[in-house]
From TrEMBL, chain B:
Record's subunit section: Dimer of large and small chains.
UniProt-listed Gene3D superfamilies: 3.30.70.260, ACT-like. Chain A, domain 2
GO molecular function: acetolactate synthase activity; acetolactate synthase regulator activity
InterPro entries referenced in this protein's UniProt entry, alphabetically: Acetalactate_synth_ssu, Acetolactate_synth/TF_NikR_C, Acetolactate_synth_ssu_C, ACT-like_dom_sf, ACT_dom, AHAS_ACT, AHAS_small-like_ACT
Pfam families per record: ACT_AHAS_ss, ALS_ss_C
Segment forming the signal sequence: none
Naturally occurring in which organism (per UniProt): Marinobacterium marinum
UniProt name for this protein: Acetolactate synthase small subunit
Function: Catalyzes the conversion of 2 pyruvate molecules into acetolactate in the first common step of the biosynthetic pathway of the branched-amino acids such as leucine, isoleucine, and valine.
Amino acid sequence: MVVRALRDEGVKYIYGYPGGSLLHVYDALFQQEDVQHVLVRHEQAATHMADAYARATGKAGVALVTSGPGATNAVTGIATAFTDSIPMVVITGQVMSHLIGEDAFQETDMLGISRPVVKHNFSVQRPEDIPAIVRKAFHIAESGRPGPVVIDVPKDMTTPTERYPYEYPKQVKMRSYTPITRGHSGQIKKATDLLLTAKRPVIYTGGGVILGGASDELTELSRMLNFPVTNTLMGLGGFPGTDRQFIGMLGMHGSYEANMAMHHADLILAVGARFDDRVTNATDKFCPTAKIIHIDIDPASISKTVQADIPIVGPAKVVLEEMIQLVKGSKKQPDTAAIQSWWQQIDEWRQRHGGRFRTDDSDLMKPQQVIEMLSKVTNGDAFVTSDVGQHQMFAAQYYKFNKPNRWINSGGLGTMGFGFPAAMGVKMNFPDADVACVTGEGSIQMNIQELSTCKQYDLPVKILCLNNQSLGMVRQWQDMNYESRHSQSYMKSLPDFVKLVEAYGHVGMKVEKYSDLEGAMREAFALKDRLVFMDIAVDPFEHVYPMQVPRGAMRDMWLSKTERT
Amino acid sequence: MRHIISVLMENEPGALSRVVGLFSQRNFNIESLTVAPTEDATLSRLTVTTIGNDRVVEQITKQLNKLIDVVKVVDLSEGEHVEREVMMIKLKASGQMRAEIKRTCDIFRGQIIDVTATTYTVQLVGASDKLDAFISALGSASIMEVVRSGVCGIARGEKVLSL
Ligand SMILES: Cc1cc2nc3c(=O)[nH]c(=O)nc-3n(C[C@H](O)[C@H](O)[C@H](O)COP(=O)(O)OP(=O)(O)OC[C@H]3O[C@@H](n4cnc5c(N)ncnc54)[C@H](O)[C@@H]3O)c2cc1C
Ligand SMILES: Cc1ncc(C[n+]2csc(CCOP(=O)(O)OP(=O)(O)O)c2C)c(N)n1
Ligand SMILES: [Mg+2]
């Protein structure tokens, strides 16, 4: 029933790992071909693969893990999806229902463990409920503010010798769950009127624009108004990264011009962004002169950390479309003279810092140069997944994402080990696309066992390991706040990555000089059907800048090791 | 400020733990909590009293509404409402204390629901502050045990919390 329901849901791939409680399900998988199972080497990777599929396509990914340790190994992946609002359905095996509560072998209370990190979870009590539960799980995961849903399935619910009536429901109706489909027209009108009077506006958009497929509407509205646009880490690609109106990412490691513009703005249009603490810095100093319009599908995101002046609850796509129509139909036009001088100011900021890094004469590569090269070699058109650390910030700052759903990283939870399985999940579903995983020598070792899965399923992703021989992001904080006491942030005893990947049957490359970088990278991407691991030596002392000063305002930033705003 | 939040939710296993979990996970405070079935067997009604400023209470109601099992949420303290709590209190009662307790009990319109040679058990129904007042009015009488039901409440007039 589980497999049949997945097939009826249109699921092509599921990612998982078998175990006692799931043997009936695995046997059913064996006997059909519609739903293909991908065997990972660690359950965490299964959840990240499913998650990345969702990030790239907007549809829920599916993971299947056994009870006990299988389920607990999946928790990090579930939490990763939860904090970034990613739709996912995770099916966990469970011990026989009559054993639940008796500390049976491989029993864990998965409903309890997962509860704080899921949108919802189900436990199957009767086999005949399986189709309806599976349908509900997908509905809940994908609609409204998306999120992961766990279905816990006791082994006796899948006994193959017992037969039950099966009907896959076409529609779901739940009296306690009705996701919102449009915004309040009065509020939208009020907001649009305010947009047309703004003198120093900024459009600040986040993951909600990507999740809600609202990039086109965002781009159209922004162009009509000629307002500057900044994206959160999760919102990158929601607005074209090479567009003149794009002023970069904002927040802790946001661009100088984006953070300055936010601080001095008189109006902020926030779309599908949740005023995260990595964005706002100290909320009491946040954007002191701005009125805030906040569009979000989840009312709980509005006025949670920063009070909104005009809250609009609704899907970004529908609300923005309504705004576009209102602006088109309005007699009033944006204040072009004011917007013009606002742009002058922003361009000055751009010139003053413009997010540049410094290269010196040595041939030691800067990590930023590697990302710029990746952008060049892939024409800004690749799927780029990332792990967590300095390399993630460099990728966010220097890769120019022109399309949504191409930048795939763990923002809210910051899960090291995410990037590589994520790249695999994308490659599996987009076999012809270039898929690059930007990682560090620390992060990659958190799921490196998946090199084996890549061999089994022929997943020729490109791994760019920015090797700074340290847990760089940790070391940077230690440099800045702990007088460079590098407690446990070194990675002594690194493996020879080239030999390691070769042992798994892949191609390894070591790049030590900038002058070799372009050639090596082109060669790597030319090897279409091979996984290539590029171990790239980068400056171990580089820091990520700008970096906001703790407890300051948006404009308070370190711009280099010695300059502060 | 103190708020009484009333929640109508699916009578499903795990629903209560989601609500309670939400409060601890998000650092919301719970003063009291009661839950029981309603006239509709598929629904239960939960009442929680909490203390917080407007922003916190707004988050509480929004987050409660997000739970899939929750059908409706209302902050009763926003409008006219009636609240009641039941208390049973066991007291040492001998000698002249017996008459004393009886008097206090009458003033508060409590009932003595169990008697032994040395104890009284008093039942009192009312708003929570009345129960508090009773406890302090007992003065020197010695309290052996206090059981309170937690608050439940209902809106005044025509307003109802239903599907
Ligand atoms: C090392 C590190 C450094 C970081 N530094 C930064 C930084 O400098 N800058 C930065 O921005 N982030 C940074 N982050 C990420 C940060 O932690 C948050 O994950 C991120 O800021 C949240 O992005 P968001 O506001 O777009 O919200 P998301 O988590 O993407 O949430 C999406 C929001 O959109 C809403 N939504 C969903 N669907 C829709 C829809 N259809 N319509 C409307 N709304 C919808 C949701 O309800 C939610 O409120 C960093 C993370 C790490 C690990
Ligand atoms: C699972 C996990 N553990 C710990 C951390 C804390 N952490 C954040 S960045 C980082 C260092 C990452 O090192 P590396 O992958 O080499 O990247 P770099 O910063 O050097 O580019 C650590 C330990 C985390 N984000 N995730
Ligand atoms: Mg490193």
